[in-house]
Amino acid sequence: MRQTTPRVGRDRGGRERTGRRRERQPAIPVYAAVDLGTNNCRMLAARPARGQLRIVDSFSRIVRLGEGASVSGILDDAAIERTIAALRICAGKIHRLGAKRVRNIATQACRAASNGTHFLDRVKADTGLEMECISADEEARLTVSGCVPLFDAERRFVLMFDIGGGSTEVTWIEQQGEGRLRILGTRSVAIGVMTIADQFGTGILPPRAVKEITNRVDAKLAELDQAHGISEHIAAGRVQMLGTSGTVTTLGGIHLNLRRYDRSKVDGIDLSISAIHKIADRLGGLSEPQRAAIPCVGTQRADLMIAGCTLLQTICNRWTVDRLTVADRGIREGILFEMMGTDGFMKDAGRIPSFELETILP
Predict the structure, then answer these.
(1) How confident is the model over 338-354, as pLDDT tens digits?
(2) What is the pLDDT of residues 197-256, one digit of tens each?
(3) pLDDT band at 142 (very low <50, low <70, confident <90, very high)
(4) Domain spans of the chain?
(5) Would you state the CATH architecture of domain 149-332?
(6) Architecture in CATH for domain 31-134
(7) What confidence tens digit (pLDDT) does each residue in 289-312 have?
(8) 20 to 30 A Cα–Cα from 65, which one of 80, 127, 154, 207?
(9) For 187-219, b where at least 16 C-beta lie within 10 A, e where not — what string?
(10) What is the pLDDT confidence band of residue 361, given thresholds at 50, 70 and 90?
(11) 192 vs 353: CA distance, rounded Å
């Protein structure tokens, strides 16, 4: 084999120098997370960058895995095929990136369906992705971890909710100073936008349906409220309310009059509660095609917006805060922060301790 010798020259001081380049520093690793919900399949890949995430790739597709499952008790074959097709794309991206650590989680649809375990086995066989079906408690905890950068340090408490496809989680968090957090309580109610659509349809909800949904959800919110004196803390100005879900972010995009949804403009904005009610009431007076024509809604979300707004208004009516922080982030970011923290890339990252975690079924 031909050998080469390094080129030798002189630096400005007359000292010999070689043509060898400086040894490259090891590349900062990539981390990836997949969040498979009842409605959406989402993947996020990132590198740590000075305590933050530097996104290198992402993927999101509405797959409606839980379509009809709240009535039938099983995941539908067509929904399974749609979801596996999306997960193959996620797997391909993760493989090409050579991710150092990966965590893939599934939530309410797989928790509740009788064939959920069989579905996850098939995902492993067809895509190579090892999916983990997490509890509602772990789902809430990871969502908190992902939303921490949006917490207002001036408020002692954060009341956070996530309106999903198959369930709605509400979490009560205490900020203890110096970046320390503690989950004091949470409620997971197995009512989401898709379960409402399955049971009551996707059109304008009749008054009896709205009353039934509101009563079922509010009864569980009242339990959390009474257990922790949330309303009293709100009245004293100690609470930040934060919402993370497609419903909330869509309303944020509508409020900003965006012609096309833009995460960078929506994530972290504050909406007044009066603006939320105004937009929700406006959407409730439109037909599905009219809702679909609104930028940031579109055909894929138009049929579920009424259900989402019903849940959102139920929460806002229970707790009369002045404004809501919109979060276009959650479980995926929480997973990434925690994996990077394990490897020493995130300061003080790790599991947020919990005092009370309780799942309530309707």
Answers:
(1) 999 888 887 654 455 54
(2) 888 888 788 899 999 999 999 999 999 999 999 999 999 999 999 999 899 999 999 999
(3) very high
(4) 31-134, 149-332
(5) 2-Layer Sandwich (3.30)
(6) 2-Layer Sandwich (3.30)
(7) 999 999 899 888 899 999 999 999
(8) 207
(9) bbbbbbbbbbbbebebeebeeebbebbbeebbe
(10) very low
(11) 26
**The pair of three-digit structure tokens given for residue 276, joined into one six-digit string:** 């939320």
Are 31-134 and 149-332 equal in CATH topology?
A: yes
Confidence of residue 51 (pLDDT cuts 50, 70, 90): confident
pTM of the predicted model over 0.85: no
Burial of 162 (0-12, 13-18, 19+ CB in 10 A): buried
CA dihedral 86, 304, 208, 195 (to 10 degrees): 10
Parallel, antiparallel, or unpaired for β 323-326 and 270-272?
Answer: antiparallel
Q: Side chain identity at 43, as an amino acid letter? A: M
Please give the structure tokens belonging to residue 19.
């043509």
Q: Which amino acid is at 185?
A: G
The 3-state DSSP class for residue 152 equals: coil
